[in-house]
Amino acid sequence: MADHSAADPASGYLYQCRYALLAALQRQDVTPGLEVSIECFDDIAFSDNGSPKERLQSKHSPTPKAMSDQAVQFWNTLGIWTKRVNDHPAELGKIKLTFVTTSTLGGDTAVSLLRSGPEGRDVAKAMEKLSTSATGSKNKKIAWAIKLFLQ
């Protein structure tokens, strides 16, 4: 029998709302007049006068597990962001892109090398790992995102 429960999607949406509230509170003293949206520009977006300044993809799982360099959630996010940059190249470098997950990240994954802050951040090594992961992938679910990434 198929499971038609909405518990997992509802849990993810509630996580988005809670995370958006937390992130907005953390930014309130630094960015007066901050606008917050959910499921408008991205899962969560922070805007100034209707123009997004930060776009967040939030990935919640009720049973978190380790995220590898082949993770469908990460590649779908990367594909969405790559398409956005291709369609709107003037935004590149002007909008902060943030990936938030309840999954654990191993220290040897590309995603872990892209964490914010200078400690442990290595964009060049992350790109190398992502390129290796992309060229070795056989996953049809993320083929579209990998194609965009490799282009």
Give the CA-based shape: globular
Largest sheet: 4 strands, mixed
Order of adjacent strands in the largest pleated sheet: 1-2-3-5
Helix percentage? 25-40%
Low-confidence region ranges: none
Question: How many separate structural domains?
Answer: 1
Number of strands: 6
- The mean pLDDT is 87
Percent of residues in β-strands: 15-25%
Number of helices: 4
How is the topology of this model organized?
Blueprint (H helix, E strand, L loop, with lengths): L6 H21 L7 E4 L5 E5 L2 E9 L6 E2 L4 H16 L8 E6 L2 E2 L17 H14 L6 H8 L1
Parallel strand pairs: 3-5, 4-6
Antiparallel strand pairs: 1-2, 2-3
What does this structure look like?
With 151 residues, the protein is α/β, with parallel strands linked by helices. The protein has one domain. It has four helices and six strands. It has helices at 7-27, 72-87, 123-136, 143-150, and strands at 35-38, 44-48, 51-59, 66-67, 96-101, 104-105. The strands form two sheets. Strands 1-2-3-5 form a four-stranded mixed sheet. A hairpin with a 5-residue loop joins β1 and β2. The chain starts with 6 loop residues before the first helix and ends with a helix. The model has no long low-confidence stretch (mean pLDDT 87).
